[in-house]
Amino acid sequence: MIQTLAIVGVGLLGGSVAKAARAAALARTLVGVGRDAARLERALGDGALDRATTDLEVGVRGADFVLLAAPVLAIEALLERVWRAAPDGATLTDVGSTKAGIVRRAEALAAGRPLAFVGSHPMAGSEQSGYGAARADLFEGATVLVTPTDRTEPRALKAVTGFWEALGARVSALDPEAHDRAVAAISHLPHAVVDALMDAVARFAPEALEFAARGFKDTTRIAASDPDMWADIFLANRTALGASLGAFRQALAALEGAIAGGSREEIRALLARVKAAREALR
After folding, report:
1. Mutual orientation of helices 227-236 and 72-85 as an angle, nearest 10°?
2. Any idea what DSSP says for residue 145?
3. pLDDT on residue 175
4. pLDDT band of 116, cuts 50, 70, 90
5. Does residue 282 have a pLDDT over 80?
6. CA 45, CA 262: separation in Å to the nearest integer?
7. Is-contact 10 39, C-beta < 8 A?
8. pLDDT 10s digits, 34-75
9. Residue 107: beta bridge partners?
10. Residue boundaries of the structural domains of the chain
11. Superfamily of segment(s) 2-174
12. Fold of 179-279
């Protein structure tokens, strides 16, 4: 059992970890760290946390397991302070949507002071944000990608994998660069496309939004996500995201060309190929 679990950032993901860890009796003491004491009061009030603080060093100092649940660029910025404050033998992980930059920073810090770090990315969430959207069952059946390298301690990988499995997740491993390319394709590109779709409709026929039905609203749901969080994600993964946007432009050009060409068979063949690819998803 974890003696003290410190969660840095008690929003949707950090709050859900706190609630799930409490439900699973995974840690004796749960400590939340945030910038705003008032926002931490709700997690204290409903019992998800035992203690809360706005002082990062105080919150991390006695923890044997630290989870960084801040935005991706903030995680990179906070790592050095966490590294200095965490006790010897502590295990560190994070929930960032990109991994290469975070892992590089952690490994650079580990060269000066060895601590057990493994990057994590739970493929779970919502367009909603903040502790009010946190759920104890958020990770049940969800995939969590961990990103060890050849410098990762086996005990750290075992501890972090076991942590997520205890919260109900399925864990798979990818190296950090492969992770960032994969999520650029299946997470960050779809988000960018939906953002562009909403912008396109607002430019082309904003009056039509009055009549938008469930299909359009379901398709564009994630466009309501936190702009600050997604701006960080797009920047942190801009190389892989840029490549995936290039592939999307090619796909869109092919569809546009088929429509402009006026051939029903060409359009149908393209749509049938896409349909088959979608149906192949499990």
Report:
1. 80
2. E
3. 96
4. very high
5. no
6. 62
7. yes
8. 998 888 999 999 999 999 999 999 999 999 999 999 999 999
9. none
10. 2-174, 179-279
11. NAD(P)-binding Rossmann-like Domain (3.40.50.720)
12. 6-phosphogluconate dehydrogenase C-terminal fold (1.10.3660)
Q: Among 127, 120, 140, 123, which Cα is nearest to 19's? A: 140
Q: Is residue 217 predicted with pLDDT exceeding 90?
A: yes
Q: Which helix (H) or strand (E) holds 17?
A: helix 12-23
Sign of the Cα pseudo-torsion (168, 172, 176, 182, in order): negative
Q: Within 13 Å, how many C-alpha atoms sit on residue 24's CB side?
A: 24
At residue 73, the 3 state secondary structure works out as helix
For residue 197, give the nearest of 218, 183, 182 by alpha carbon.
218
Q: d(Cα 123, Cα 105) in Å, to the nearest integer?
A: 22
Token pair 């580990």 in the structure block, residue:
110
Contact 52, 18 (CB under 8 A): no
For 7, phi and psi rounded to 5 degrees?
-115, 115
pTM, whole model, 2 decimals? Answer: 0.91
pLDDT of residue 164: 98
CA–CA dist 143, 124 (Å, integer): 7
Cβ-in-10-Å burial (0-12, 13-18, 19+) of 114 comes to exposed
Write the Ramachandran bin of 47: left for phi over 0, alpha for psi from -120 to 50, otherwise beta. Answer: left
Phi, psi torsion values for 124, nearest 5 degrees: -150, 150
